[in-house]
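Lab manual, section 2.4: Encoding a predicted structure.

Procedure: take the sequence of the chain (1362 residues), apply the prediction step described in section 2.3, and record the output as structure tokens. A sample record is shown.
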Amino acid sequence: MRSDRTAGTPTHAQYLGSSGGLDESGSVTVSGGGRRPELLTMVAKRRLSKSTNEPDEITTKDVARAKKRKIGGRKQTISAQEGEVDDGTVFVQSLKSAGVTLKYGNQPNKLTLDQAVFQKKLYQALRKHPRYPNVIQEFISGLESHIEDRDKFRNCLFPCGQSQEGESSNSVSYQESLIKLLLGIEILQSPVMNTLFEKIPEFMYDGVPEDGINMPRLIINQFKWLGRIVDSKDLTSKIIQLISVAPLEVQRHIITSLPEILEDAQHSEIAKELNCLLQQNTQLTVPILDALSSLNLCTELLVEVRHSVMSTLSAVKLDDLPVVVKFILHAITAADAVEVITELRKNLELESCVLPSQMQASQDKRKQKSVMGASVNQVNSGHDCVAIMFNVIKAAVRFQKATAEAWIKAIEIADSAAEHKVIDLLVLLILHTTSTSNGKKQVEKLFRSKIRLSHVGDQLLQVAFRSHALVVREYFPSVLYLAQILLRSPDGSVVSFGSQMYKHTFMTFDSYCQQEVVGALVTHVCSGFTTEVDISLDVLMDLVSQSLSTMAVYAIFVKGILDYMDNLSPQQIRKLFFVLGTLAFSRGQDGSHIQDDMHIVIRKQLSSTLSKYKRIGIIGAVMMVGCMAYDRSKIEPISSDLPSMSKESFRQATALLELVRTCSEHSAEAAALYYDELANLVQKGNLDPQVQELIGRSVLDDFQEDFVVDLLPETDSKYLLPLKSMYNLDEEDTEGGIVINLLPLLSNSMTSAESENVAGKQGNKKCISPVSLASFFRLLRFCEEVQHSGNLEEIDALLGCPLYMTNLELVEKIASLSKQEQELLCSLLFHTLNWFREVVNAFCKQQDTEMKGKVLLRLQNITHLQVLLEKCLAATPGYVPPLANFDVEITEAPLTTAPAAPAKKGKKDQKSKKKQKSEDNKNSSTDSSQTEDPAEETQVQSENTQGKENIEEGKVLINLNNYRAYFRELDTDVFIVLRCGLVTKSVLDTELHTKATEVVQLSSPELVFLLEDLYHKLDYMLVTTATNKMLFLKVQGDRDVGFSHLRQKTPQALAQFAVELLNPLCGFAQHGNRKLLKLALGVLANRLKAGDGELELEELVRQTFRYLQNFHSSIPRCATAVTLTQLLIVIAKKSLDNQYKGKIASIARGFLCQSWVLPTGEKEKGNKYNEALETLLCFIEIILTEMELLQYFSLMCGYIFVMQHGRLFIESFLKQGMPLLDNSFKKHREDAQSLLKTLQLSTRQLHHMCGHTKLNQDTNLTNHVPPLKRLLELFVCRVKAMLTINKCQEAFWLGNLKNRDLQGGEILSQAESQQESGDDEESELPEDNAEEESEEDLDGGESDTRKATKDDEGISEDSDSD
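Recorded output:
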């Protein structure tokens, strides 16, 4: 409280005025004040002055009498006589004559006149009274005597009643209380106020009386809305004093009533007091802020109060938080809105605003799936204060444009995830709800931006839904709308955030919201946009997996997607049937209607003759079997004791599998798709044992019967090509073994296909074709893995067994073969490659050393066969390979390539070539992976390289990436072979004894093959572009080709797998593999000079660089020069020495100047040659730029360092060194002279640096020049003073020092620069004596002086005098 108030324990006379009287104008004056009066003393006073000589001190007897009177007065509440009060006092008679009749008991006082008339008559009666102004005191004394009785006092505080005669003439339905009417009379206002303030303490600590009337509150209400306050300062002072002594409840009511009591002139004073009180008592936060919000305050005071409130925000009680936030937002102006909102965001910790009980209740609601109805929108202040706070924010941003813009700006400037809080997310929802269309777009843009930058992620979303579900629920329309637009974004992170919004909304809110979410997701699925469909189906799958019972209610909505399957890809159809199958077969009879619809759709699709619809039927049927036969005991141990699938379900699954087999066995492609889908189902490992046993029962026997035969001696071939067994990895004696019957089956299938085409019908017998060979084997190996816990020893003979092929020497003679023979040879190579790919997929995880060696050998077979295949494809234009991936619709034929033109062409030929290229590009797939890839430039083998580069001979350029649809997909497990290193393989004799051992390792072609495939997988799963995202009504068949198995993995899982491969691939970069790096460098370093011992890394880098550098003079091709330059750059980065950069730049410059000539004698040219030259030029520019920047910054940092620390050194020498020389110069004259001469060299160099700075106008150094030059001058004067002290002043002399740059060159002034160079009169002086010339400064008016000594007696120093 204020310091000028009376301290100590005041007497009765000191509290709220102890003496009173009338001033000359008739007004009552009351003086005095106290800090905390004794209650008994306060009650003892009843009349301010009965006589002018009454002492201020109240005796004990008076106090006792006051107590007795008070107690007696309160007992009259029930026994008081009913009727009018008529005691003949001035108070009663004056009121009666003015129109008020006082009543006893519970009867209200009667007012017979209009209120204004009554006030006027009473005022005139008192003013015209013979004893005026003393009659005022008598009137107040009568009032005090009257209100000593509690009932009478209560009647005076209650509204007056109307008498019978008054009702007819008075049209006012509400009458003020008698006290309020008296306070409206100016001559009575102050004494009546004093009387009321004295009465308040009597009731402050009484608690709740029998009649339930709160007397202090009733008294305070009398001060509200007075027309005029005679002495507002005195009223303010008394209110402040009363607040300081009142109990908490009374304090709260007084504070909240202040805006209705005080005039505007007193608002600033009371606001300062409330601000102080706010810091002292946090229990009064709410009433104080409520009052401050209604006061008319100046800006400075408002800012001061706001800062005080903001500083206590973190300690505010949860119940008080809405009021605090409301005040802060109320006090915002447009100028400081951003600053205030930023500080509010910083101090408002919503994470700590959730009570444990609320959190537990929220969790219980989610667990019990209780319905949150419309009552969620009705915020209860006693249960969710956070919701009230957000309602306050909502009101502020809706009606205050500056506040809304400030919130957006504050969120925008937060530049890290750590700076963002859950309040940002909730406020964005509020802004989206309350804004106009333009404002909504701004919020959506901000949402997307923050998600892309990873500032707002799933963690904040989880906190918002988990801890503030009531708030988020209120803005459900905005949540749903934002989720919809985010899911349609081309950015993957934004799409993921939108999907999370859908999932959290469904898991948290009531059935209405859940239905809306499911409806929105179904709309997305039917939209036709590929990525939108994929993500929506993924969300539905997650919801079905996490909340099956809840999703089952909305199965009817999901079933509607069956009408839009034409636009879904096979992978999307798998997801759809998984969702529907799970919903249908997890509810028993409740899902029977969905089961019936699915059976109808599947049977219809399977019976179709179109491959597209038959493919949908096969995929849907297999997925239905997976849902029917799902073994929950492997995921839920609790259900392990439950019986397996019912007989009816098993019967349905068996019948469905038989139906699919029957409908697909007449078509090789349909059968292959069936085997692949069944293999995917078995691979998951969650099938019921009965169904698993049914599938695997006859797989091995059927495979052997269809595709495996005994290896017999070769005889004359009856096929189009000669028969020969190839690629046998087992013992040399192959008779009695097994062989894959590839060529006979392929030849027969081609012959039968031709005969069927001629007959115009398709056979009804089972089709056995090599097309389904790899798919059938994939199913076989998964069945074996499930049956034998991953061990494939039962079928390991298939890894090394040969294949019936033909003599591959025919590849070199392919031009002489017929078209049918050429296509048969190409198909044979495709099937062989696919068989080897699937074999590598199967056995790559086996731990047996022999199997590992055979896997590596199969990879070698693959790379070799790919070279042969390229030659065959180049010689077989128009050939369409057999399918190897059957779950996609191949919409584009392989990219056809024409023979390259001769070296020299006319303009016409060049135009036709461009036209042909344009047509090829038009026919190619829109997918970037279908066009030529940079990986095509990789030299797999010498034959491949020659085939691609020998353009002059007219060979066709083949890119096998364009044939990805016709190769089996490599599983990600295959890349495990990158870790295997060297593998020893045993060669057995006829008696199965080890005849020899050979070491097998992963060579360069196999490594390139694997890395290219890994690159395509990572590019497909992790690299997303807008082109790939927004494809309307186009199934991404071409882009999805070859990635069916990969799509079963999540991008996160693939990224984690790729990271684990970095160790074997990029091990040199790790500090733990430093020895491995040194070993690798040592291989090349020892070729230059064999080392006797272990060399350090730096020396190894130097020698390796020298070894590789020697090749620069013998590089034959420009592309090779680029490779050498890149290799030298990589080697140089292993060293900290920057000398290599200059050498690399010199080598690259030489490559650019060199004339590159082909072996044919022609100069190298073309696009690739130009790209190589551009790459070399970029290398040079980057290296030179780095070197220049390094040199510049090195010099710059050196100059700044010298000038800064040189100045500090000179300053320290002046303070500490020169006093020492003053005292020791005579005794140590030679040492002192030598020290100063040495220091003179440094000061001269500092002088030159100042001149260099002026000449170059270097702003980084200019700020250091003035203080340095002042110190140099001070140093000259200080040396002269030292010599004077020691009586050697004759040794000191001054001269002008020329301005020179850092290289010693003279800096000419503007006048001198216009003269001829021969006019230079500078002379060289002896070493002990410095230059002594007179010349102008660089600015023309500045001279540089220096001092020097004569011979051995003098001392020379530099100085600058401005």
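Check your result against the sample. The first helix runs from residue 39 to 44.
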